[in-house]
Design goal:
Length: 148
C-alpha cells in the first residue's frame, strides 16, 4: 500500500478504523508507506498562499503526522517527507497504490486536492502503461524522500 498524497489528512476522517486496517495489513506482511509533504517546507507555504483556506496545508500534514505517530512503531508502516527538490512534483500529483490498482489525483491550479479530479487506474498485462508511469513517479519520490 502506498499513500502518496501531499497531506493525506482526509484518509483519517473518511476511512473507518483506518489505524486498525493499517496495523492488520502490516501484520500480514503488507508494506504500508506514506509519502507526505514537509509541513515547514517552502512549497507548503506557497501552496497555503495559493489555496487561502482555513485548514492550511501544513495543518493537514500535521494531522497525518499525528495519526501516524498514534500508530506507534507498527512493523511494516513507513513514512517519509518528499525531498525539498521534489515537493513541487509531489504536491501536483497524488498517487495512492494498492497492488494492481491506483487512485491518482492531478491537482488543478488553485484547487484544494479534494476539488481536483480522481482517476482510478488499473495495471493491464505485463506492460506498465499509464499505471506504470504513475507508480514510477511515486517510487522516484519515495526513494529520495526523508524519514518523518
Amino acid at each position: 500500500m502506498f499513500f502518496g498524497g501531499y497531506t493525506s489528512y482526509f484518509l483519517w476522517t473518511q476511512v473507518p478504523a483506518l489505524p486498525d486496517v493499517l496495523r492488520r495489513k502490516a501484520a500480514t506482511g503488507c508494506r504500508v508507506r506514506f509519502l507526505i509533504g514537509d509541513p515547514g517546507g517552502v512549497v507548503t507555504r506557497q501552496r497555503e498562499e495559493i489555496e487561502g483556506v482555513a485548514l492550511a496545508v501544513s495543518t493537514r500534514i500535521r494531522m497525518t503526522i499525528e495519526q501516524l505517530a498514534a500508530l506507534g512503531t507498527a512493523e511494516g508502516v513507513e513514512a517519509r517527507f518528499s525531498a525539498p527538490a521534489d515537493a513541487v512534483n509531489h504536491i501536483s500529483l497524488s498517487v495512492f497504490r494498492f497492488d494492481d490498482e491506483a487512485l491518482v489525483t492531478p491537482h488543478l491550479a488553485r484547487q484544494v486536492g479534494h476539488d481536483s479530479p480522481l482517476l482510478h487506474v488499473r495495471r493491464r498485462g505485463d506492460g506498465g502503461g499509464m499505471f506504470g508511469r504513475f507508480v514510477e513517479h511515486a517510487e522516484e519520490l519515495w526513494v529520495r524522500g526523508n524519514p518523518v
